[in-house]
Amino acid sequence: MTLEAESYLKGALGETVQFRVPGGVLGRYRSIVVGAPSFAVDQHVVVFLGARGPSVPFVVGFSQGVFRMVRSTDNTSWLVTPPTDLRPAAGTVPIIRGDPSRRPLTLDDFEQRVRSLVGSQR
Amino acid sequence: MNRRAIVSVLILLICAPPQPAQAYLKFGVTVGDQRVTLKWKPGPVQYFIFDSSVPGVTSPDLQAAVARAFSTWQAVPTSSIAYQFGGLTSAQPGDDDGKSTIGFENYPDLDGVLASTSFVVDDATGELIESDIFFNASYPWSVAASGEPGKFDLESVALHEIGHFSGLGHSALGETSLSASGGRAVIAAEAVMFPIAYAPGSIVSRTLKADDIAGISDLYPDGDYATAEGSLSGRVFQNGHPFFGAHVVAFDLRTKTMVGGFSLTDQGQFSIGGLSPGPHVIRVEPLDDADVDSFFDQSVNPVNVDFQVTFDGVLVVVPRGGDSGQVLVTVQNK
Fold first, then answer.
1. What are phi and psi of B4, to 5 degrees?
2. Contact flag A94-B187 (C-beta cutoff 8 Å)
3. Who's near B239: CB < 8 A, 6+ residues apart?
4. What is the spatial distance between Cα B142 and Cα B206, in angstroms, rounded to a whole number?
5. Is B247 helix (H, G, I), strand (E, B) or coil?
6. Residues on chain B touching A53 (C-beta within 8 angstroms)
7. How many CB atoms lie within 10 A of CB B74?
8. Using CA atoms, how far apart are residues A102 and B73, in angstroms rounded to an integer?
9. What is the C-alpha radius of gyration for chain B, rounded to an integer number of angstroms?
10. Which alpha helices (H) appear in chain A, and where do they start and end?
11. Would you say B208 and B166 are in contact if contact means Cβ atoms under 8 Å apart?
12. 8 Å CB contact of A24 and B178
């Protein structure tokens, strides 16, 4: 898979980045892997990639490493969908579908939260 | 050819969207201009066990646990699917050899992936040639009869993967919680095909639920499935517009069981089969708590998750051997 990179949360692999996604087609045979993500031309995504040594990166945890973006209704920003789970400060909280307080994050907010989570785990 | 070799050469993507059809999510491929459901031909489906082991689980343990899981699916009285053990093999899951193979493989890079199922399909005909399952050896596994603290129950996870192996996609009938450490835990699930596993030590998912039984029976109907069960169908709207991807749940007031489906067209159409005759409550909800990609090919059909859980105000009676007629549900905006 090849993406045109608009920005990086971490590292820099250039204007385009290639990574492996399981599955594919060879001749008349199609390999399908349940849970592997798929992509469409012109779609905007945030991907979390991993790699071991000098190899082609892979997307982390199949589709768990892919977050898709849509334009906000006023077309001023990108939103990351679906609403990203926000962990509680302590204990556990049930995730309630359709909760009006659950809203997609703007890309900037999403990036800040990722950086905050990474920072808190150091 | 080994699938890993294919993956390393090609940058083509898989396309495994569940098929818009009668309820449940099924896998399918496009052949020409036709959509073909991925399912096995009639007759026992043969599988092989990769001769492998992990700490605490020997190869015979693996074989026995997988056999129990296959037996559970095969025992569904309204489904005709049957399976047959073909023997132990040194071939690994993922070897494209025309044989369906199941076993352990070590994928430490696959964060959050306990196991995975894959298919090889003839693109010219849509024929399902093989399906392989690997259990990620980087996780701790158990085959203890009562489960084992700190280890995932192999039979439970095998039951889920064999649902995929048989052609079923994921079910959204489950609720989860989020912890301060970022972990997701299942509070309750009404389907073995819910995509998130119960915590290590649990053996709850060794038993199929009504939703799983309806799904496998829909794919491989047998017995009195068509005449004894009924279906419920309709359309989902928001602000007057039909939409794709709403999760629709039919709750049976008599049996206290539930079966889920989705609005699977741009016209908001849903159809849930395999329901016990009688009154049902309908709930429509978004997939906003989920890894939506594990349900739908988001590159093709973006899913609308921007609405509240909505209960239809009317009890719907499912007739025996028939359909409820069109139920129209308008969801509430957030």
1. -65, -35
2. yes
3. B333
4. 13
5. strand
6. none
7. 18
8. 37
9. 20
10. 107-120
11. no
12. no
Asked whether A104 and B197 are in contact (CB, 8 A), the reply is no
- DSSP, res A48: -
HSE-CB at B43 with a 13 A cutoff on CA atoms is: 3
- Give pLDDT, residue B9: 27
Mutation choice for B interface testing from A1, A18, A96, A97 by most B CBs within 10 A: A97
Measure the CA angle with vertex B176, ends B170 and B177; round to 5°. 155
> Would you say B159 and B72 are in contact if contact means Cβ atoms under 8 Å apart?
yes
* Mean pLDDT, chain B cut into blocks of 10 residues (334 residues total): 32 32 73 92 97 97 98 97 98 95 93 94 96 97 98 98 97 92 88 95 97 95 90 96 96 96 94 95 92 83 91 94 95 94
User: What ipTM does the predicted assembly reach?
Assistant: 0.89
Dist. CA A104–CA A111, nearest whole Å: 13
The predicted structure's pLDDT at residue A120: 65
On whether the CB atoms of residues A80 and A111 are closer than 8 A, the answer is no
By DSSP bridging, strand A58-59 and strand A49-50 are: antiparallel
- Per-position DSSP letters for B68-103, written without gaps between them: HHHHHHHT-TTB---EEEEEEESSPTTB-SSS-EEE
CB atoms within 10 A of CB B123: 15
- B137 and B115 Cβ atoms separated by less than 8 Å: no
DSSP state of B27: B
Query: C-alpha angle with apex A36: A117 to B172, nearest 5 degrees?
Result: 80
pLDDT of residue B109: 82
Query: Which residues numbered 17-56 in B keep a CB inside 8 Å of some CB on A?
Result: 27, 29, 38
Tokens representing A44?
A: 């905007």
Q: Tell me if A26 and B175 make a contact (CB, 8 A cut-off).
A: no
Q: Which amino acid is at B139?
A: Y
Q: B-chain residues within 8 Å CB-CB of A22?
A: 3, 7, 14, 118
Asked if A59 and A37 count as a contact pair (C-beta separation under 8 A), the reply is yes
Flag if A88 and B182 touch (Cβ within 8 Å): no
Q: Give yes or no for a contact between B149 and B200, defined as CB atoms under 8 angstroms apart.
A: yes
